[in-house]
Amino acid sequence: MESGIMPLGSDDDFYWPITDDFKNLSISYNGKTHNGMHDHCTPTAATGIFRYLTHLGKTSCTSGESTNKTFEKLYISLNTNNISFSSFVSVGTARNQIDVGLRSYASGNNCSFDIERSSFNTLSSMKDHLDRGRLLLISVDDFGDPAVDHSIVATGYSSNSLYIQNGWSRNRIMYSYSSLDIAQYVYISPLPW
Questions:
Q1: Alpha-carbon distance 100 to 168, whole Å?
Q2: Could you state, in chain order, the average pLDDT of each consecutive group of 10 residues for the chain (193 residues)?
Q3: Three-state secondary structure along 18-69?
Q4: Which of 104, 119, 170, 178 is most deeply packed, by most CB within 10 A?
């Protein structure tokens, strides 16, 4: 049995953004300019989530803006690579700021969302959120390589596996829950749902 917001095959008409889409982008904010994006898996995952929910007609949050503009706003809201303010993270996005940055982006676009960081990294809790139609932005450690921390999106599940958009492929891939070293996840759904 499969469950979650995205039934198997339903993503065929949605063009999921991947990290390579933004590698040549230049972003300027508050006197800083970042050229040649790197360590940007979190705003890439978040861009996919917000644009997919708009695609489904669940929100109009990204209507009227390009995928690059959505990414740019999220990159800034998430303080990726310290573009907005100094942080204790030298590269990437500080995990304890992901839910805050996502709420900031939604608020800045006049959209109401239920966005919370979960304190329960269990498969049961993740399935519960997916059954409620929420998407999950998951922070994982050692993703395919002991030195790689990464952000991915869960869109559904089947048995003990999650359907994942990993940010490197437009196709969703099934990963067993036990193969993922999950550090945290943030659930996201538009209000009212």
A1: 25
A2: 50 86 95 92 98 94 95 97 84 94 96 93 96 96 85 96 96 95 96 72
A3: CHHHHCCCEEEECCEEEECCCCCHHHHHHHHHHHHHHHCCCCCCCCCCCHHH
A4: 104
